[in-house]
C-alpha cells in the first residue's frame, strides 16, 4: 500500500468517526428539528385549509342573510347579519355591518344604522374604500336626522385634496348646512364644489340646481361658473343609502 493510500484511508476513518461522534451528540436536535419542520408545515397547511373553510362558511352565511332580507324576512336577516358582524371573518364582519346598517336605515332606525356605519368606519381590518363609503352613508342619514356637527364629523376625513369621495363628502356637508337654514355657508360649499375641476359632471349639475334653489330662497345670488371651472367627466359615484 502506498503512503497516499494509507493516509487517504486514515483520513476517511477520521471523518467517519467525526460524523459518528457528531450524530451521537446532536442526533436528538437533528431529529427534533426535522419533526418541527414537518409539524410546522403541516400546521400551516391545516391553518390555510381551516381559514379557507371558515371564509367559505362566512360567505354562505352572509349570502343567506342577504337572501332573507330580499325575501322580506328582515327580522331573521338582522339577527343573522348581527351574528356575522360579531363572529364572522374580518372581511365579512365589515360587509355584514354595512348590510345591517342599510336594512336598519330602511326601517327608519337611523340611529342604529349610523352606529353600524360608524362601526365599519372604525374597523381597522376593513378595506379603506369600504370605510370611506360607510362614513358617507352615515353622513347621508344624518343630513336629514342629525346636525351639521355630526355630518362634519363623518365627512371631514374625506374632504382633503385628492380624496376619492371628496366631492360627495362636501355635498353632504353643504346639504346639512342647507337643512339647518344656513344658506350662506351652504352656498359657499356648493360653489367650492362647482369650482373644483375634479367634480363629476352629474354632481356639478346637482350643485347648480341647489345654488339656484338657495338663491330663490333669499340666499346668495346664483352666478354662472367661470369657464376654467368646468366640471370633469363623471368619475365618482355617490354611494346610495
UniProtKB/TrEMBL annotation:
<dbReference type="Pfam" id="PF09976">
    <property type="entry name" value="TPR_21"/>
</dbReference>
<feature type="transmembrane region" description="Helical">
    <location>
        <begin position="28"/>
        <end position="47"/>
    </location>
</feature>
<protein>
    <recommendedName>
        <fullName>Ancillary SecYEG translocon subunit</fullName>
    </recommendedName>
</protein>
<keyword id="KW-0143">Chaperone</keyword>
<dbReference type="InterPro" id="IPR011990">
    <property type="entry name" value="TPR-like_helical_dom_sf"/>
</dbReference>
<comment type="similarity">
    <text>Belongs to the YfgM family.</text>
</comment>
<keyword id="KW-1003">Cell membrane</keyword>
<dbReference type="InterPro" id="IPR026039">
    <property type="entry name" value="YfgM"/>
</dbReference>
<feature type="domain" description="Ancillary SecYEG translocon subunit/Cell division coordinator CpoB TPR">
    <location>
        <begin position="21"/>
        <end position="155"/>
    </location>
</feature>
<dbReference type="InterPro" id="IPR018704">
    <property type="entry name" value="SecYEG/CpoB_TPR"/>
</dbReference>
<keyword id="KW-1133">Transmembrane helix</keyword>
<keyword id="KW-0812">Transmembrane</keyword>
<keyword id="KW-0472">Membrane</keyword>
Amino acid at each position: 500500500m502506498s503512503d497516499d493510500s494509507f493516509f487517504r484511508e486514515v483520513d476517511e476513518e477520521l471523518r467517519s468517526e467525526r460524523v459518528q461522534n457528531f450524530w451521537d451528540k446532536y442526533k436528538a436536535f437533528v431529529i427534533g428539528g426535522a419533526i418541527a419542520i414537518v409539524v410546522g408545515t403541516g400546521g400551516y397547511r391545516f391553518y390555510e385549509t381551516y381559514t379557507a373553510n371558515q371564509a367559505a362558511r362566512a360567505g354562505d352565511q352572509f349570502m343567506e342573510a342577504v337572501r332573507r332580507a330580499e325575501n322580506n324576512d328582515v327580522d331573521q336577516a338582522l339577527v343573522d347579519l348581527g351574528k356575522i358582524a360579531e363572529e364572522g371573518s374580518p372581511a365579512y364582519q365589515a360587509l355584514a355591518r354595512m348590510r345591517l346598517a342599510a336594512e336598519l336605515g330602511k326601517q327608519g332606525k337611523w340611529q342604529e344604522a349610523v352606529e353600524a356605519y360608524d362601526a365599519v368606519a372604525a374597523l381597522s381590518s376593513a378595506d379603506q374604500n369600504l370605510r370611506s363609503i360607510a362614513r358617507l352613508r352615515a353622513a347621508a342619514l344624518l343630513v336629514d336626522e342629525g346636525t351639521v356637527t355630526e355630518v362634519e364629523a363623518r365627512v371631514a376625513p374625506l374632504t382633503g385634496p385628492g380624496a376619492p369621495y371628496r366631492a360627495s363628502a362636501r355635498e353632504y356637508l353643504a346639504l346639512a348646512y342647507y337643512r339647518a337654514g344656513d344658506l350662506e355657508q351652504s352656498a359657499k360649499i356648493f360653489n367650492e364644489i362647482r369650482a373644483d375641476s375634479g367634480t363629476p359632471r352629474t354632481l356639478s349639475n346637482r350643485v347648480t340646481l341647489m345654488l339656484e334653489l338657495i338663491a330663490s330662497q333669499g340666499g346668495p345670488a346664483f352666478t354662472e361658473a367661470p369657464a376654467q371651472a368646468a366640471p370633469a367627466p363623471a368619475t365618482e359615484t355617490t354611494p346610495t343609502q
